Amino acid sequence: MRILLSTSPFGATGREPLELLAGSDHELVANPYGRRLRAGEVAELIQDVDAVIAGTEPYGVETLANAGRLKVISRVGIGLDSVDLDLCRERGISVTYTPDAPSDGVAELAVANMLALLRHIPQSDRSVREGAWNRLMGCLVREVTIGIVGVGRIGSRVIRLLSSFSANIVAADTDERVYGTPLPNTTWCDLDTLLRSSDLVSLHIPLTAANRYFLGRDRIARMRTGAYVVNTSRGAVLDEDALADGLKQGHLGGAALDVFEREPYEGPLCKMDNVILTAHIAASARQSRFLMELGAAQDCLRVLAGLEPANDALAPTAHLISSPTP
Fold this sequence. Notes:
Blueprint: E1 2-5, H1 16-22, E2 27-30, H2 39-45, E3 51-54, H3 61-64, E4 72-75, H4 85-91, E5 94-96, H5 103-118, H6 121-129, E6 145-149, H7 153-163, E7 168-172, E8 186-188, H8 191-197, E9 200-203, H9 217-222, E10 227-231, H10 240-248, E11 252-257, E12 275-277, H11 286-304
Parallel strand pairs: 1-2, 1-3, 3-4, 4-5, 6-7, 6-9, 7-8, 9-10, 10-11, 11-12
């Protein structure tokens, strides 16, 4: 069988995932572009393959139209908004993902962004480089209230990291399997209470039809004046234009975004000094990337061998947010 390595690079953080695939009886097909594939390129490359080790490129109606041989899309990562799961069910295409592997990396970047916002680190860096010596006054983590929206694999890790700072945390989650779970320094509440009481709101929810522009104009308007926003989940859960307006009007104090509705991002937030922008690097930690690739390779081979994958994204019990880690 033929396996397309659509994500690029692959194997740069450790050879084991690539060696595992190369040591199988299957033929490997490399991404010829060395970058994230566009929809038309995906459609062309998957026509004659049985499996894809996938990145964040799209797998929808158009891209899967001529993928008659495709048996499995094995996603290197946790987000599945780029894969038409219903269509894959109809076509009998297995979909796997690696929900645990990137979680530590994403949680750590979220906390790093919180610290950078609260202590004005980017602004201080720029002022020194420009010849100024502005000793900007920030806040300790324990001085503010931090709202965590979505308390699954990543949100729960963020809370545990923040607990070492004696943080005051409020949390909201619509999943009854998650809501109310005891977590350090955490008070559970509804979303409206969280928005009105938090000095910093961090988003940790998946992108679904219901969650598109989850944090939009109405909810931003309910946030505290001077509050911060951190988004390391998916770009489209946040209305970027509404965020930009909230920042311009002085209603919000700043923001840190690692994900965007369209990437690479080139919008108005690029010109704002109180916004931290990173190029979707949350899972770009060596150990996280290695475990993501290894898990994707293992599940790909399991499916091709007729076995059940370790992480089946199409299973009825699949929970994309997930309950907190022990």
